[in-house]
Design goal:
The chain has about 140 residues and is α+β, with helices and mostly antiparallel strands. It contains 4 helices and 10 strands. The strands form 3 sheets. A 4-stranded mixed beta sheet has the order 4-1-8-7, covered by helices on one side. Strands 3-2-5-6 form a 4-stranded antiparallel beta sheet. A two-stranded antiparallel sheet has the order 9-10. The C terminus is likely disordered.
Protein backbone atom coordinates (compact mmCIF):
# COMPACT_ATOMS: atom_id res chain seq x y z
CA UNK A 1 0.00 0.00 0.00
CA UNK A 2 2.76 2.44 0.90
CA UNK A 3 5.26 0.99 -1.56
CA UNK A 4 3.88 2.85 -4.57
CA UNK A 5 4.05 6.38 -3.04
CA UNK A 6 7.50 5.62 -1.63
CA UNK A 7 8.72 4.37 -5.04
CA UNK A 8 7.36 7.47 -6.78
CA UNK A 9 8.95 9.71 -4.13
CA UNK A 10 12.34 8.00 -4.49
CA UNK A 11 12.17 8.24 -8.27
CA UNK A 12 11.37 11.97 -8.00
CA UNK A 13 14.25 12.57 -5.58
CA UNK A 14 16.73 10.68 -7.76
CA UNK A 15 15.83 12.57 -10.94
CA UNK A 16 15.84 15.94 -9.20
CA UNK A 17 19.59 15.55 -8.67
CA UNK A 18 20.34 15.20 -12.37
CA UNK A 19 21.83 18.29 -14.06
CA UNK A 20 19.17 19.42 -16.53
CA UNK A 21 20.39 23.01 -16.76
CA UNK A 22 22.78 23.67 -19.66
CA UNK A 23 26.29 24.97 -19.02
CA UNK A 24 26.47 28.67 -19.67
CA UNK A 25 29.44 30.67 -20.78
CA UNK A 26 30.00 34.36 -21.16
CA UNK A 27 32.21 36.86 -22.81
CA UNK A 28 33.03 40.46 -23.35
CA UNK A 29 33.19 42.48 -26.56
CA UNK A 30 35.76 45.27 -26.16
CA UNK A 31 36.08 48.26 -28.48
CA UNK A 32 39.58 49.71 -28.09
CA UNK A 33 39.32 51.55 -31.42
CA UNK A 34 39.19 55.32 -31.55
CA UNK A 35 35.88 55.21 -33.44
CA UNK A 36 32.47 53.53 -33.08
CA UNK A 37 32.17 50.07 -34.58
CA UNK A 38 29.26 47.97 -35.74
CA UNK A 39 29.30 44.33 -34.62
CA UNK A 40 28.43 41.87 -37.42
CA UNK A 41 28.57 38.20 -38.41
CA UNK A 42 29.23 36.37 -41.68
CA UNK A 43 26.19 34.20 -40.85
CA UNK A 44 23.87 37.15 -41.53
CA UNK A 45 23.41 38.39 -45.12
CA UNK A 46 24.86 41.81 -45.92
CA UNK A 47 21.52 43.26 -47.05
CA UNK A 48 20.18 42.77 -43.51
CA UNK A 49 22.70 45.29 -42.16
CA UNK A 50 21.80 47.87 -44.81
CA UNK A 51 18.08 47.73 -43.96
CA UNK A 52 18.35 47.19 -40.22
CA UNK A 53 17.41 50.02 -37.89
CA UNK A 54 18.70 48.16 -34.79
CA UNK A 55 22.43 48.00 -35.42
CA UNK A 56 24.82 46.78 -32.74
CA UNK A 57 27.01 49.84 -32.34
CA UNK A 58 29.81 49.78 -29.80
CA UNK A 59 31.39 53.11 -28.97
CA UNK A 60 35.09 53.68 -28.19
CA UNK A 61 36.19 52.26 -24.82
CA UNK A 62 32.80 50.60 -24.41
CA UNK A 63 32.23 46.94 -23.61
CA UNK A 64 29.26 44.67 -24.27
CA UNK A 65 28.59 41.46 -22.39
CA UNK A 66 27.42 38.29 -24.09
CA UNK A 67 26.27 34.90 -22.88
CA UNK A 68 26.08 31.57 -24.64
CA UNK A 69 25.24 27.95 -23.95
CA UNK A 70 28.07 25.43 -24.05
CA UNK A 71 27.15 22.25 -25.86
CA UNK A 72 29.83 19.56 -25.83
CA UNK A 73 28.72 18.10 -29.15
CA UNK A 74 28.86 21.53 -30.85
CA UNK A 75 32.13 23.00 -29.52
CA UNK A 76 33.86 22.99 -32.92
CA UNK A 77 30.83 24.58 -34.59
CA UNK A 78 30.63 27.26 -31.90
CA UNK A 79 34.36 28.02 -32.35
CA UNK A 80 33.85 28.36 -36.11
CA UNK A 81 30.91 30.72 -35.54
CA UNK A 82 33.09 32.94 -33.34
CA UNK A 83 35.58 33.27 -36.19
CA UNK A 84 32.78 34.61 -38.39
CA UNK A 85 32.24 37.63 -36.14
CA UNK A 86 33.65 40.90 -37.39
CA UNK A 87 33.25 44.63 -37.04
CA UNK A 88 33.12 47.56 -39.40
CA UNK A 89 33.78 51.20 -38.73
CA UNK A 90 30.43 52.95 -38.49
CA UNK A 91 29.16 53.89 -41.96
CA UNK A 92 31.85 51.82 -43.63
CA UNK A 93 31.83 48.31 -45.08
CA UNK A 94 35.48 47.37 -44.53
CA UNK A 95 35.53 44.13 -42.53
CA UNK A 96 37.89 43.82 -39.59
CA UNK A 97 38.09 40.62 -37.58
CA UNK A 98 37.93 40.60 -33.82
CA UNK A 99 40.94 39.29 -31.94
CA UNK A 100 39.53 36.26 -30.10
CA UNK A 101 40.95 35.61 -26.64
CA UNK A 102 39.65 32.32 -25.27
CA UNK A 103 40.38 32.69 -21.58
CA UNK A 104 38.61 29.39 -20.76
CA UNK A 105 35.91 27.15 -22.15
CA UNK A 106 33.41 29.32 -20.32
CA UNK A 107 34.88 32.76 -21.11
CA UNK A 108 35.80 34.44 -24.39
CA UNK A 109 36.83 37.99 -25.25
CA UNK A 110 36.28 39.61 -28.64
CA UNK A 111 38.64 42.55 -28.96
CA UNK A 112 38.41 45.26 -31.62
CA UNK A 113 41.73 47.08 -32.25
CA UNK A 114 43.63 44.76 -29.89
CA UNK A 115 46.86 46.60 -30.71
CA UNK A 116 45.58 49.37 -28.41
CA UNK A 117 45.13 47.03 -25.44
CA UNK A 118 46.79 44.40 -23.31
CA UNK A 119 45.53 41.47 -21.25
CA UNK A 120 45.56 41.77 -17.47
CA UNK A 121 46.09 38.04 -16.91
CA UNK A 122 42.73 37.40 -15.26
CA UNK A 123 40.65 37.24 -18.45
CA UNK A 124 40.16 41.00 -18.78
CA UNK A 125 41.73 43.54 -21.11
CA UNK A 126 42.63 47.19 -20.56
CA UNK A 127 43.45 50.01 -22.94
CA UNK A 128 47.10 51.00 -23.15
CA UNK A 129 48.40 54.51 -23.57
CA UNK A 130 49.46 55.43 -27.07
CA UNK A 131 52.93 56.33 -25.74
CA UNK A 132 53.21 52.84 -24.27
CA UNK A 133 52.28 51.37 -27.67
CA UNK A 134 55.01 53.45 -29.35
CA UNK A 135 57.56 52.27 -26.78
CA UNK A 136 56.65 48.62 -27.46
CA UNK A 137 56.99 49.17 -31.23
CA UNK A 138 60.46 50.73 -30.80
CA UNK A 139 61.70 47.78 -28.70
Amino acid sequence: MFQRPISIGLLFLMTSCLPFDPLEGGGVVYNFCEYPIEWRSDNIPEHYYKNNQHKKIIYPNETKYISFIIQDNLVEEQNEDRKKLYFVRSKSNVKNRFYIDEYSQFRINLIACHENAKPTGDGNWVKTNSSENLKNIEE
